[in-house]
Batch of 4 targets.
Target 1
Amino acid sequence: MQVSEGGKNFSAGQRQLLALARGILKLRTSNILLLDESTASLDQATDEHIQTTIREQMSDAHLTIIEFDKILVLGSGEVLEFDTPANLLNDKKSVFADLCRRSGDFDELKAMAEGKANK
């Protein structure tokens, strides 16, 4: 298939898949993968497959995040939270804490964050 300038001959979903693939491939040279509405133009089955794959392949990513000095949480293009992992995990209304609770590793993550904070 011939690719036209800007990928105009691809659907929005196809362009989104290409952008996601490019981002994942760049992980070889970068430690950051920023996803913002990365599957919005995809059908539900493809979205679920991608979300499952990302969760499985990056299952230890949240353990790395706990080691950072500060965490920035974005939502709808706005900064929702910016604080230390320990402070965010101790905030019952924290989006980050909710994500950690849903990961199933909340107690381990909280212990790690508090251990780092007490150093």
Target 2
Amino acid sequence: KMAEYTNLYIKVKGLQAKYETLPKLYEEARIEEQRENLYVEVIDPPSLPDVPVKPKRTLIVAVAAVSSLFLGIFLAFFFVWLEGVKSRRVSA
């Protein structure tokens, strides 16, 4: 009985070791297969656009001007508020 148990135990340990190594081997094989199948296929050849692309300077300048105006107004209100907070701390 003990010999049968030992044989079964050895078999189980061997199968368990195989079970633990198979996922690792599968993952390595999958990565290797993906590495071998790396290629680039050109679908359409490149072409030049009909109209050249250029930055919209007027839009950029307008957005920058409006943004800086709002930022200036915000900073003015912020500094006035900050002075009020400082004066309340000093008087308190």
Target 3
Amino acid sequence: IKLPEIPLPKFSGKCEEWSTFKLQFNNVITSNNQLTKAQKLHYLNSALIVESHVKSILDIEKLTHESAKDLRNLIVCVKKNIRALKILEYNRNDLSDIFVLNIVLQKLDRETRRQYELNISSNDVPKLDDLFSFLEKRAQILENVSKTTPLRFKFCLERNPKTKTFLINKNVTQSCILCKMNHPIFKCDSLLKLNSLQSSELVSKHKLCLYCLSSQHKLLNCKSKHLCNICHSKHNTLLHKERETINKSAVLA
């Protein structure tokens, strides 16, 4: 079945001419009583296809941050719809390129838009293909940066293993504050030689626990269950005022 030859209005690709084109199409096809519904549908389908491709470009979501994936999706969407319009014999021209270029620029995130403005010459008229080339390079740069940043962070951590171990290891043996040897202070021979007054002054000076003589906590937080061997009170035996009268070999923490 040969459809009647009707001079259909042509859409130039300019966004501001879309409403005029749509109105002309409705007058020529939709309001034409000489066409059957099937014939109108055939012509209408072509118009709807054109409209859908134009709308797909206009409806691209604005990018809110730098993203290689979002940039590539934007490029693919615009190029795909331009190719589809070309198949429908709506070819690109300088004017349509300018409109599409400005639409794409409005969809870019702030930093990508700024980089593009710095990249172009103020004396040249921007070209759509040049914009596509810039966005593709920009996406590649963002991908490269996202791949190298975790590696640099890992490298920095590996270069400071001692610092990392210091932060997480809570069970490092504390050296004795008197002789600097690797043993608890209550086992130090230097401490055993002191009298109770000297021991008390030492504990006060270094803010040690009165119970176990640890420097890591206070008396209220001490978990030791040992009591003074002399008076059975809650203090270290070495701090008992009358301990000089007992045999030091029997003194226990």
Target 4
Amino acid sequence: MVGDFSSDAGFFVAVGVLAFLYSVAALALYCCFTALYENNDLVPIGDFAVHVVFVILWLAASCAWANSLSGLRSVAALDNIIANAPDCNEKFACSKVTEARFGKLVSSVIFGFLNIFLWASNLWFLYKETRFYKDKQPGEIANTSN
């Protein structure tokens, strides 16, 4: 088979595993160490920065895996396999049996791009926890009713 698509698949899986491990650690931080998160300004900023990195990683991994899936589809096409098979010649007639199914692989690409959206949309909620957002909030405006 022409082409090796394992590195892109491995990168995609590695980003998924790292995202899962970070999510578990962040959940523990949010639930068990709430005071640390609320009292230390650097923790929300660090959380925000890690989320930015994960958005970039998910984008790179999803694009790489989508490109590899396209290459895998072209390599695994039955016409291509029959044309490149050494046993398929004048002596032996080869015919198509079934086409390969890529539905589960396509769904993994879709979920990869969905992860970009989820991690990026979570940035807004994390931004509201940082001091950059809190410093921009205006003070209480006095109610002057006549």
